[in-house]
């Protein structure tokens, strides 16, 4: 079995891939788009992509690509606590430049501004790439924001630990695939994710769509609006609802009712949520 | 009067600033955070920031900074049609690298992949910075994605025009300030924007909050969820509703009812929407 994931090795996505598929072939791709396309072109059996971070919000590239250019099903979700660290070389020199992926820089913005007000931040394609760059320039007063794995992989010192602004920093990852495999990880729950496109000619369409779940007491854990890319003000909505014994048949009825209202419904997936505890 | 905006000169934000404040002092800042902080520290009378693009969605940095770290009021909105172009030096050599801001690269992703499948894309802090970099390296087979202003400003050739993937590519900008100035630009409408934080102990809270507008026939033009940055699954919601003669008092009642439900309501602004037509 083969799983494609957002690389490079050492990325948070690779940590999840190792936990979920310890003995399978894991292939790193450079971008979320390439991961999803690898799956669409049947180059792999599963694809693993980040979908939401508790501080920075949805990974819009994942949601948009999945909605616009893919028919893949979500067959699992993994949640990973995110620990960001400042990695570099022990030195007396004050840091001049700090490198990382934009999401990691955003997650540590307040810390960096408070502790390194004079250091400039510079965007890199990934946290691993940032760590690798710092490794390659030991003579320069620079550092990278990345995870523990990157410190080990690139033999860097951890100058500061757990520097993320929000203590409860967690990222959700979606697994795309055909088979609903069971993983040997703690299960946190079960969810159904839907993408809804509302009809233009239905006044208060979003309210009516949400009512379908509300009056059935189906818990909605998330609603996200994303542009349809047609014109300003036109959106599709991604809705996550809790699935359990009580809800199962109610969700089917809710979807039928949505269709009757003229709402286009795509079931993105009905999946278990697993917790990955990073060591 | 002084207006702070997201620079550098030649950016889309600077185009709006020039239209709205042709005779006032306009100060470019390097980041959205710095623009909002300049306003908070009373270094300027107005601040202009991008808030949403029709293809790429919300500028989450603007919404988050405004919600979490600022009390500024929105006193106006500007919509600008966005035209992206490929700028460079006329040459026979195939392009090897294309530079731009991540949003501009995202807006032209399909075009670039179709026409320059072998060129790598490289992120820059702004479209103007990308154009400037290309200007400084006339010997290299590189190009920048940027607007017409940048072509003029950095004396580059337009290698391809209007390369954005969505023909109707438009960006909304918010003006923060104290005074509701009238601008000499066509008015497209009037809106009220609210940030809602829902109570934990109210089942179906989002449905109830939206109902407050729906049963009053108040048109909601946008709903956006953003993380509260506390933990995964905790959000605040930004809602835009149409304001007009009929709605005015209904909106006040709706807000009162939200407060009664235990919803924390922040009125981000009640403002006119102006159309800027880029030349």
UniProtKB/TrEMBL annotation, chains A, B:
Coiled-coil residues: none
Task: Tell me which domain of life the UniProt entry assigns to the organism this sequence originates from.
Answer: Bacteria
A GO CC term? Answer: cytoplasm
Q: Where is the Prephenate dehydratase domain?
A: 2-178
Keywords of the record: Amino-acid biosynthesis, Aromatic amino acid biosynthesis, Lyase, Phenylalanine biosynthesis
The cross-references to SUPFAM superfamilies, in alphabetical order and at most eight, read: ACT-like, Periplasmic binding protein-like II
Matching entries from CDD domains are given as: ACT_CM-PDT (cd04905)
Which reaction does this chain catalyze? prephenate + H(+) = 3-phenylpyruvate + CO2 + H2O
* EC identifiers of the protein: 4.2.1.51
Molecular-function annotations in GO: prephenate dehydratase activity
| Name under which the protein is recorded | Prephenate dehydratase
Query: Species name for this entry?
Result: Lactococcus taiwanensis
